[in-house]
């Protein structure tokens, strides 16, 4: 099986079915439900389709309401809330079986100059010196349940290269931090929206895993119920998602059945291009 970068762009190429209404297809990544990054990225694309191309998205905030059904398409309804002099605001509702499964608020900003500062990128080895996570998974595929083996070992649209831990099966208790390089597994076109949507798709990967690290638990642990609750992403400056980006993630707190995580994307030159925050359900099952 194969899931390439061009396949991902096809997944994000929504079908217009009426004014302000779009339809998106699904792809199984082994979770048994629609991957949160997919519906986030598709909703972002739906919103952007109603905004002039010279006004890129700068922030998007979404809530996951119901688990998505992989067997049927998702329909996206866009509300054009405001078209201002420099900002445009959109709201998107994702529908399946007549119910909202996800909603998104997105803001688009006409580029302008302003004050600039940023944190420094942490030291990290070059991505070329690191083992792709997929290679590790394939080398240990006998440990994967047979029903998931083909899906989890298929070619991926994104190349993830963990910096601090190349063992995706490990459950030793570790600090709630994670660092990995990521880029599209193939070249993308020059449309800035495609690069933002691909990064949004990637941004949901590994966040809740970071919140589980101090507890020595995996997101596939049968004692846990794990799901994304909300997700925010801010785009600070242009970038290419088919060039290496360092994703630095930490989880400062968890409790009350929820874990909070945040992440920063850096270019190889050390520029901060995007920030992410998410809270997710990490509920211990009582039976």
Q: What attributes does this structure have?
A:
single chain, 287 residues, alpha+beta, globular
Could you characterize the architecture of this molecule?
Helix 2 (36-48) packs antiparallel against helix 5 (192-203). Helices cover 18% and strands 37% of the residues. It starts with a helix and ends with a strand. The protein is α+β, with helices and mostly antiparallel strands and 287 residues long. It is globular, with a radius of gyration of 18 Å. A twelve-stranded antiparallel beta sheet has the order 1-2-4-5-6-3-9-12-11-10-8-7.
Strand order of the largest sheet: 1-2-4-5-6-3-9-12-11-10-8-7
Proportion of helical residues? 10-25%
Largest sheet: 12 strands, antiparallel
Low-confidence stretches: none
Number of extended strands: 12
Q: Judging from the principal axes of the Cα atoms, what is the shape?
A: globular
Strand content: 35-45%
Number of helices: 6
Radius of gyration: 18 Å
Q: Which oligomeric form is depicted?
A: single chain
Structural class assignment: alpha+beta
How far the N terminus sits from the C terminus, by CA atoms, comes to 36 Å
Global mean pLDDT: 92
User: How do the helices and strands follow one another from N- to C-terminus?
Assistant: HEEHEEEEHHEEHHEEEE
